[in-house]
Amino acid sequence: MPAIAADGIECPQHVGIVGLGLIGGSLAVRLRSAGCAVSAWNHRAHPYETAARIGIECKDTLEELVEAQPDVLVLCNPLVAMPKILQTIKPIIDPARTTLTDVGSVKGLVREQVHAAGITDCYVGAHPMTGNERSGWTAANPGIFDNALWALTYDEHTEYRRIVQVAGLITRGLQNSLIVIDDETHDRAASLISHMPHVVSTALINQMTADPDRNIAAELSAGSWRDMTRVALTDPDRTCAMVVENSQNVEVLLRQMASRLTEFADALRDDDVAAIHRFFTEGQTYRDFKQHLANRNSGETETVFTTLRIHPEHWRSDFLESAKRGEYIVRFTSGHHALAERHPTI
Amino acid sequence: MPAIAADGIECPQHVGIVGLGLIGGSLAVRLRSAGCAVSAWNHRAHPYETAARIGIECKDTLEELVEAQPDVLVLCNPLVAMPKILQTIKPIIDPARTTLTDVGSVKGLVREQVHAAGITDCYVGAHPMTGNERSGWTAANPGIFDNALWALTYDEHTEYRRIVQVAGLITRGLQNSLIVIDDETHDRAASLISHMPHVVSTALINQMTADPDRNIAAELSAGSWRDMTRVALTDPDRTCAMVVENSQNVEVLLRQMASRLTEFADALRDDDVAAIHRFFTEGQTYRDFKQHLANRNSGETETVFTTLRIHPEHWRSDFLESAKRGEYIVRFTSGHHALAERHPTI
Predict the structure, then answer these.
(1) Which PANTHER family match (chains A, B) (predicted)?
(2) Which of A208, A173, A185, A188 is nearest to A35 (CA)?
(3) Which one of A209, A232, A322, B87 is least enclosed by Cβ atoms within 10 Å?
(4) Residues in chain A closer than 8 A to B230 (CB atoms)
């Protein structure tokens, strides 16, 4: 029987969480406070006392968690532990009862591992676009999911009903929105907006520490430097793992970024006014997009909604094209209709 | 007669402000609220009504402002207007009564212009390490000076007493701290922590808008992308001007950054685990430095102060070495002694 949240919203799921770190812990707390039934297992028991106090049912072993047959089992463990965890889950999980998903920032690799474990059919990829430079249960904070957008990902084996199921958890349990795209598109986009920038940010602090006047530079650093290097303060091992998991996409983007910087350096050397001007104006559609979001958030611009019809035969391309049009799904209104918030394209 | 601030702190100066934009406006409001006598001129009169209401004396012309003989005249105008403004000031300013300073982010170029106008002797370079992506009087906010650090800069013509005078305005009028360095060191450090990163941030948004899946990428973008591209939302003309003013230093750093990114891309291609690990650990001293600052701000680490003795004969190197040791001057305790906050070096 589904749990009922305090505000009367029906939480559609019993959710199992593997790993109570920054993301898993925050997710567990948020879903629990929305009234969902939440079970969890963590490789060390230190979060259990606090977690149990707010009604999260903590299991002694991963096996026990899977045997409890949650509607959705969310893998929030580090990627390095994934193969072993999948091997443990494989013989116990009942695909008829449980849908498997995860929160990893690289989808292709997780899919391969799930496929290798032979449990692809019950799997839906998921990536919440949130997080911060902290980690672990002590950093868990349900607020990191405020207004978060999720990417759900599919391949040719994915079952449509499982997408709708995980989407329900996101829109109803978390009050978040989502897009649905294929793994490859996700991993390329994620390398652009997160993995490659993490490398750039790290290169910036390396540039500083290599400078003979590094202490003066560090003293003078203010807002722009602080913001651009914040993600380089993240646990370097975690960043490294994330980048290596998506290394092919990151490599391509780093070379393109290096070319952009070199071309601009050439323009400065040559005092090429036209090239310099072009460099500073070519991203204007993105600035306009951000201004639109700011206007929406301040209530100056009305939010535009659209109804998305998802055809049973070609739901993959329906979702993908919707995402490309700048639409965020806010809820499913029926099995094949969704309400989406529409933003201007860039 | 010096004005007395509400809290009883003596504001040592009558300050003239040229230009009531983001920095000049914020500075005028903050100094006024600290009890300083503040006069101002702006090339357009639209800020005058609000400014006058809080006791800022607004002058109809730049000439009138200079003729009022403020103790310190602070040029907060855009750099493009600097030659004309200096030409206007030159025949009127009384160097015996008024010290000239500015707030520009590039010191070498302003010094050249001041030198060309023949008023080097009364000039001290200054650069408050603050600001944001907004601009103009409507964006002015005295809070941008909370805990700000200033760089004061000198060349071989600078008079020591004027350094102490402007420093007094910063430490007593603004409750800010400062370091004192030469123009070249400043401009190299500023290009590292601000001008070059502005170019990198702009290159990131250009990379996104050039991507076929740019809308999906924009949808998925979250905290790391937002922080790393915030400064690229700045008025591109202002950023462009700032970068071009310091083009030689920026060019060198961009080529070094491009090399770093390319080398790391090579390491990813070659799966060179050692090189990848080195890349993610070489900036560790900076992470430790940031942790130190966080501990200090949360009160976990005590602030360490040191007394700096400045010798009349070699004050330039005394200040420069102090800055290199990671010391921020918080106040002058006598004409040749300063109290400085000491931070660990990186």
Answers:
(1) PREPHENATE DEHYDROGENASE, PREPHENATE DEHYDROGENASE [NADP(+)]
(2) A173
(3) B87
(4) 224, 227
